[in-house]
Inverse folding.
C-alpha cells in the first residue's frame, strides 16, 4: 500500500495544527514543560500500575539537518535545521476480559530557517478488545491519528520533517460490538456491527462506513463434514466523491 491519502486504509489515522513562528528556544521551553508534566505523571504512575494499569511516559529531543527540506528538484533545494521534541506516553491494561493498548506522541517541529513551517503533530495508536458478557457479547474499538502523503505524483515524504507540503492529517476511529457464541459444539454464531469514521483534514473529504457481518459455522462436534452460512453488507458514505454499497 502506498502512503497516500487515495490509497489510505482504515487503520491509519493523526491530527496536526500549524504553529506559526515558534523559535527553537520556545520549543525547548515547551519540551521542558512537557518533561516536567511527564515526570509528575511518572511519579503518579506507580499508584496507577498498582491498580492494574501500565503507564509509561517518555520524551525525546533530536536535531535533524537536511539539505532539501521541501524535496525540491535539483538546483532548487533549501536546507534547514529542525529541532524535534516528542513527549508522549504508553498505556496498557490487560485482564481476562479486557485488553487496552494506546501509544500517544506529541511531535513538535521547530524549523530554524523557516519558522512558518513549524508544526505540532498528534500521533495516536490505540486498540481495545473487551468481553462484555462471557462467551456472548464483545466490543472492539480503535483510534488512529497520523499523517500521510496527499498526492502520489508529488515528492513523497517518508516522515513529517521533509516534504510536509504534501502531507495531510488523518484521523480514523472505529467501534464494533458483536455477538460470538458456541452452541454446545454444534455451531458457532457470529453477528457483528461496525462503524468506521475517517477524516483527512479536507484533503479528500470525510468517510463514514457501516457494516454488518453475520455467520453460522459448523462446530467442533462435526468431523469430516463442515458447513457455513455467511452474510456481509457494507456501506461507505464519502463526502466529495461517490458512495460504495
Amino acid at each position: 500500500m502506498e502512503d497516500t491519502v487515495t490509497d489510505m486504509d482504515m487503520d491509519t489515522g493523526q491530527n496536526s495544527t500549524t504553529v506559526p513562528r515558534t523559535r527553537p528556544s520556545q520549543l525547548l521551553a515547551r519540551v521542558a514543560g512537557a518533561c516536567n508534566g511527564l515526570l509528575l505523571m511518572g511519579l503518579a504512575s506507580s499508584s496507577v500500575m498498582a491498580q492494574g494499569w501500565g503507564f509509561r511516559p517518555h520524551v525525546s529531543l533530536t536535531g535533524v539537518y537536511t539539505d532539501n527540506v521541501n524535496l525540491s528538484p535539483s538546483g532548487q533545494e533549501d536546507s534547514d535545521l529542525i529541532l524535534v521534541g516528542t513527549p508522549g506516553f504508553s498505556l496498557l491494561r490487560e485482564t481476562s476480559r479486557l485488553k487496552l493498548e494506546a501509544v500517544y506522541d506529541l511531535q513538535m517541529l521547530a524549523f530554524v530557517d523557516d519558522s512558518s513551517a513549524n508544526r505540532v503533530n498528534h500521533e495516536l495508536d490505540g486498540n481495545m478488545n473487551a468481553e462484555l458478557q462471557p462467551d456472548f457479547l464483545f466490543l472492539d474499538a480503535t483510534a488512529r491519528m497520523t499523517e500521510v502523503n496527499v498526492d502520489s505524483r508529488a515528492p513523497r515524504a517518508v516522515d513529517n520533517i521533509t516534504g510536509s507540503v504534501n502531507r495531510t492529517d488523518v484521523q480514523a476511529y472505529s467501534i464494533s460490538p458483536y455477538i460470538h457464541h458456541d452452541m454446545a459444539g454444534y455451531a458457532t454464531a457470529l453477528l457483528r456491527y461496525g462503524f468506521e469514521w475517517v477524516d483527512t483534514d479536507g484533503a479528500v473529504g470525510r468517510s463514514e462506513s457501516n457494516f454488518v457481518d453475520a455467520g453460522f459455522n459448523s462446530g467442533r462436534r462435526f468431523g469430516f463434514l463442515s458447513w457455513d452460512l455467511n452474510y456481509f453488507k457494507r456501506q461507505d458514505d464519502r463526502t466529495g466523491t461517490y458512495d460504495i454499497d
